[in-house]
């Protein structure tokens, strides 16, 4: 009898549409791999979700949710209580990774370079510059570049002054790191490889991430050998620092803008549940490492755990 896997997808975060695509892709691949698959479109109805999971009688839950409530430890804690193994990181690692200021302190303590910055109130950020320009404003706990703004030299409009900020009373302000966008996939105890991302938009925002043609992925990243290995080392160290498991993706900036000096990496964040869409980075890096998509999701299911 084939193992029963229930895919959680959708959810009610700002990343719902991407999660639906990730979940659909994972479900198809798992069926091809021989699993008995059920899918649940998660809504903000806790009793209905628990009942739906129980009715599907899963041996493993494939968590394809992205963003708040699905990636921040809350669903993980519920599955721990239910005693059902699930893919990706556990409750604590998920919560730590989603809380950007807390995660940054842990990375820094582990010797991982991170952009300088501070948490400020929304009103302070809306009133004027909170750091020397250029700098970045971002929500404390969103993914996929949702709500991220770069404040550049010469900008007249303050991105928070319009009152359209819907991501809480506090904002993370960070020094903008020039250079190149690098991302690394980690699978268990090894880094699979690094990709450089370029975009005509000038910023790897939500549209660049998920719209067809929104970005170019250079696989493997065209970095000097020593720098490439350093990207892998830092990403695996960050994965271990938070206690992550399964598959994660580290997003870094590589500042090589100073001529005559070696470049320097800065870790931006760890994604504990990276995208599984047709434009997603982790499946692409896994393929480059010789791991097909059905093999990737099979490994994730077979290595699922819970902290019951």
Q: What labels describe this entry?
A:
five-stranded antiparallel β-sheet; four-stranded antiparallel β-sheet; Rossmann fold; single chain; alpha+beta; Dna Ligase, domain 1; globular; 308 residues; D-amino Acid Aminotransferase, Chain A, domain 1
Description:
There is one protein chain. This protein is an alpha+beta fold. It has three domains: 4-87, 3-Layer(aba) Sandwich (Rossmann fold); 97-114 and 178-296, ATP-grasp fold, B domain (D-amino Acid Aminotransferase, Chain A, domain 1), CATH 3.30.470; 117-175, Dna Ligase, domain 1 (2-Layer Sandwich), CATH 3.30.1490. Helices cover 33% and strands 24% of the residues. The protein is built from ten helices and twelve strands. It has helices spanning 16-32, 46-56, 74-82, 91-98, 100-109, 122-127, 206-210, 225-242, 281-288, 293-302; strands at 4-10, 36-42, 60-63, 117-121, 135-138, 149-151, 170-175, 180-187, 190-198, 216-218, 247-255, 264-271. Strands 10-9-8-11-12 form a five-stranded antiparallel β-sheet. Strands 4-7-5-6 form a four-stranded antiparallel β-sheet. It has a three-stranded parallel β-sheet with strand order 2-1-3, with helices on both faces. Strand 11 and strand 12 (264-271) form a beta hairpin. Helix 1 (16-32) crosses helix 10. The longest helix has 18 residues, at 225-242. The chain is globular, with a radius of gyration of 19 Å.
């Amino acid at each position: 009898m084939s193992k029963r896997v229930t895919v959680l997808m959708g959810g009610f975060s700002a990343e719902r549409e991407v999660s639906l695509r990730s979940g659909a892709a994972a479900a198809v691949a798992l069926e091809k791999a021989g699993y008995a698959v059920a899918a649940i479109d998660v809504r903000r109805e806790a009793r209905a979700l628990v009942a739906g999971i129980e009715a599907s009688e899963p041996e493993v839950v494939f968590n394809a949710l992205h963003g708040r409530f699905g990636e921040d430890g809350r669903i993980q804690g519920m599955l721990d209580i239910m005693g059902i193994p699930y893919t990706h990181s556990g409750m604590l690692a998920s919560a730590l990774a989603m809380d950007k200021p807390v995660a940054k302190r842990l990375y820094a303590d582990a010797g991982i370079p991170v952009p300088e910055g501070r948490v400020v109130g929304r009103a302070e950020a809306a009133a004027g510059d909170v750091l020397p320009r250029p700098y970045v404003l971002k929500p404390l706990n969103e993914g996929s570049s949702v709500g991220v703004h770069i404040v550049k030299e010469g900008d007249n409009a303050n991105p928070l002054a319009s009152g359209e900020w819907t991501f809480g009373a506090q904002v993370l302000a960070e020094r903008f790191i020039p250079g190149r966008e690098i991302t690394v996939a980690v699978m268990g105890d090894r880094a699979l490889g690094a990709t450089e991302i370029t975009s005509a938009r000038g910023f790897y925002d939500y549209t660049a991430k998920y719209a067809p043609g929104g970005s170019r992925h250079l696989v493997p990243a065209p970095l000097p050998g020593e720098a490439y290995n350093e990207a892998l080392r830092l990403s695996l160290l960050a994965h271990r620092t938070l206690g992550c498991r399964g598959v994660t993706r580290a997003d870094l900036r590589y500042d090589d803008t100073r001529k005559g000096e070696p470049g320097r990496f800065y870790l931006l964040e760890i994604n504990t549940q990276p995208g599984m869409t047709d434009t997603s980075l982790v499946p692409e890096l896994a393929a480059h490492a010789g791991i097909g998509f059905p093999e990737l999701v099979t490994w994730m299911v077979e290595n699922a755990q819970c902290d019951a």
